[in-house]
Fold:
Amino acid sequence: MMNNQEIKSHETRFVPIPSVSMLPERDIDKGPVLEVMHLGIDFGGLTAVDDFSIAIGKTEISGLIGPNGAGKTTVFNMLTNVYEPTRGTIMLNGKTTAGKTTAQVCKMGIARTFQNIRLFSRMSVLDNVKVGFHSNIDTSLFESIIHGGKYKRVEKETTEISMELLKFFNMEGLANAQAGSLPYGAQRRLEIVRALATEPSIILLDEPAAGMNPSETSELMENIRKIRDEFQIAVLLIEHDMNLVMNVCEGIAVLNYGKIIAKGTPSQIQGNPAVIEAYLGRRKDK
Structure:
């Protein structure tokens, strides 16, 4: 893990906005891509997440960390409307996601990957990426059946763009391979490529480094930066690999028992007593 002096040298300057959070200085004139206010969800009598508030700039790489069972994936499920929040507001590019289906939220500009890889394992790598374009393809059922001129044109364009995305991640040589035959790290990359095919404003990565070796994790770190820089989109990731989080994230929120206990830059989070206690437990007095 980087030491505090090294972390401070590359940290982003954050500026307050008129809400509960802060944005990177470079994004302040654009407003947040995602603003979440007082979000909560109850399952029966159990409160899983409560009073969760966060704002993310349009080109920010942000992290959501916390111990196992803290509610991190539940937050992702609410942000994508897999779960309907019990209370609170989610604004994506200034528009509420309330009442939208998961597919509609995706079309609004939010994409995600999952803890457990969810590829179409028997389909080719290329076809897995092309699936990501389905919500933005404007062809009728009839045109698709008869393979009319518009369908062929859209199919050609989709294939070309998919190949460009694969090339961006050095995967173009695997286009015709069966997705399920890829090494674990390559399958993780393919999930990210497929999510990018939906043309999102923000991509949510749920434990993208899980199961990766140090070399793959290092490559992932660079890919996350490339995604932000090349596509000019925001990234929010859940991750337990603290070396990855502290190296790539600009802002970090820490969740414990469904509530945010700390927000800040990597160096602020590293030295926060509440965060240390959440991960390591309270020290007993001798």
Summary: DSSP finds eleven helices and twelve strands in the chain. Residues 119-198 form one domain. The radius of gyration is 20 Å. The chain has a mean pLDDT of 87.
